Amino acid sequence: MDATEFRKRGKEMVDYIADYLETIEKRRVYPDVEPGYLRPHIPDSAPEEPERFEDILKDVEKIIMPGVTHWHSPYFFAYYPTANSFPALLADMLSGGIGCIGFTWASSPACTELETVMLDWLGKMINLPPSFLAEKDGEGGGVIQGTASEATLVALLAARTKAIQRAQSENGTLTQGDVIGRLVAYTSDQAHSSVEKDGLIAGVKTKQLPTDDAFAVRGSALRKAVDQDKAAGLIPFFFCATLGTTTCCSFDKLSELGPICNEENIWMHVDAAYAGSSFICPEFRHLLNGVEFADSFNFNPHKWLLVNFDCSTMWVKKRTDLTCAFKIDPVYLKHAHQESGLITDYRHWQIPLGRRFRSLKMWFVFRMYGVKGLQEYIRKHVKLAHEFKDLVLQDDRFEICADVILGLVCFRLKGTNELNEALLKNINASRKIHLVPCNLRGKFVLRFAVCARTVESAHVQFAWKHITKLAGELLKAQKQQD
Ligand SMILES: *Cc1c(COP(=O)(O)O)cnc(C)c1O
């Protein structure tokens, strides 16, 4: 493919994507395929001779699309949203075209500098304390990680390094292994599974703290665990708080937890993967109160801020906590400006070396929507979630299982777990809408998450009608059985 053909095919591809997104409602949101469906449709090995673009595109429709879950369908209400917007798609294309790898400032100065400024922009949009910003001479700053899981791991590893250094400075005979064996990290019993996985990767004990009636970790739970563990000779060193848990969008009480962490030399990391985007609205910003106690904070604009995957933004108060933990300097990566203090080498802020020019997506989206446009977008989703909640509340066969604060509604039929499992099975088997469940203190609960950029009240109303129709059939069948 030469540049002339690229121009032509590029325009066709843009048309294909625009058509796909414009008509996505007509597709079945959840694919009707069995495991292994794909292999029989494609050759066993790559072609020796080049093939034609038309043939590849034809196969996309024939082989790939039937196996796609359409996350951007307005009938998709599963998990949490994943962002998709036209400005971000275009910026992603440009990022691919430039194709630089921005591991150091020198490896592509614009890639590093735009990222630093975009993280300051976004930090100001959510009114993050200035101590997290890089600005001209701050000690903090932000970085784009691939995912929230990686951000938590980076924070955990940096905290581990700090804890080892502290323990060794107090007792010079301790080896690194001695200290690691005694370290203990905490999170909530509602935290995302990635926190536990990160603990496994880092080789440290992780404990899940119990939550209160609102599924939030309280200061008293952390205090109790810290005191017990210290008495047993362990070293509490890390706490991952969640703002907007994946199960039910609950919020840990940062203002109670933060002071304990600060007092006990425990690194507090805040995972707000989904909820973080809502903090750009003044009416939701209070949910972030207490972040001033944190050492690091992360959320995913790639979930709810219209910046396509991947873009997980992470801020730290002291960037030297990261750069000191992960700094290794082979000759081939050294450059003339690295000691100037003015610039950032993002390779010291993350696990991989290579990194894409992802801040272009933020820049395009922030400029094309404006803060006002993004706020409206968040508000619309929250409003739709409340519309769904009100529908559930009007039907006394159902119950709401957790406070509806943002765009997630946890609900279930009053009755057994088996009944609700059957309802969800029927919903997803019909493939008209897609939902996933969660488990709240042993209860099987359905999650209704407002996800797509194009979702409207009509889709929410349709979803509820569909759910109640299936519920009615199920309850009727059950009565006949009894
Ligand atoms: C979605 C989610 C994650 C995982 O996000 P990734 O970016 O895919 O790692 C972590 N924590 C919470 C609270 C989430 O909602």
TrEMBL record:
Listed GO biological process terms: amino acid metabolic process; carboxylic acid metabolic process; dopamine biosynthetic process; gene expression; kidney development; response to toxic substance; serotonin biosynthetic process
Cofactor(s) listed in the protein's UniProt record: pyridoxal 5'-phosphate
Alphabetized CDD domains for the sequence: DOPA_deC_like
Pathway: Catecholamine biosynthesis; dopamine biosynthesis; dopamine from L-tyrosine: step 2/2
Uppermost EC category: lyase
Entry EC no(s): 4.1.1.28
N6-(pyridoxal phosphate)lysine: modified positions: 303
Cellular component, GO, one term: cytoplasm
Domain of life (superkingdom): Eukaryota
Record-linked PROSITE patterns: DDC_GAD_HDC_YDC
MF GO annotations: 5-hydroxy-L-tryptophan decarboxylase activity; enzyme binding; L-dopa decarboxylase activity; pyridoxal phosphate binding
Coiled-coil portions: none
Annotated keywords: Catecholamine biosynthesis, Decarboxylase, Lyase, Pyridoxal phosphate
Protein family: Belongs to the group II decarboxylase family.
Quaternary assembly: Homodimer.
Protein name (Swiss-Prot/TrEMBL): Aromatic-L-amino-acid decarboxylase
Source species: Podarcis muralis
